[in-house]
Amino acid sequence: MKIYTLRQTQKLPISIETAWNFLSDPKNLKTITPDYMGFHILSGADRPMFAGQMIQYIVTPVLGIKTKWVTEITHSVHNAYFVDEQRFGPYALWHHKHFIKAIDGGVEMEDIIDYKLPFGILGQMVHPFLVKPKLDEIFSYRSAKLEALFGVYHPKKSH
Q1: What's the whole-model pTM score?
Q2: Mean pLDDT of the chain
Q3: Does residue 20 fall inside a structural domain?
Q4: From residue 156, how far is each of 12, 105, 115, 126 by CA, in Å?
Q5: What is the per-residue pLDDT for 124?
Q6: What is the Rg, in whole angstroms, of the alpha carbon atoms belonging to the chain?
Q7: What is the CATH number of the domain that holds 85?
Q8: What sign does the CA torsion over 140, 83, 19, 43 have?
Q9: What is the mean pLDDT of residues 5-17?
């Protein structure tokens, strides 16, 4: 059983409250997801994030195939982190940790995703040329979109 890990860290010149308010609102996921993914929330985004929240949506990740995805927010600590786990969807395992912390001049956000593909060895075979590049593309888009929305982080120079 092969479990993959994707890590991404990004710094933004915003307060931890601004970062938390944006990232913890499920409706904003559409804003930071590429349009071609056909992201559409079906239910569960009608209130601020909380542990136990179930969010259902439709995505079109590859070949125009619409896929229903259900995630549960399993952990949520205000202004610090939250975890979403797939309950139904395209992965055999999807465990996504979102951390935010205040740094000098802004926030640092870290995503750690542990995931497993379905279909055993076949899933492992398509990972390097289909799944991994697609996830990298999605998270690159997300990073660029967050910078477009909030600005580019420039660390303060010490004298």
Answers
A1: 0.93
A2: 94
A3: yes
A4: 13, 7, 36, 43
A5: 93
A6: 16
A7: 3.30.530.20
A8: positive
A9: 98
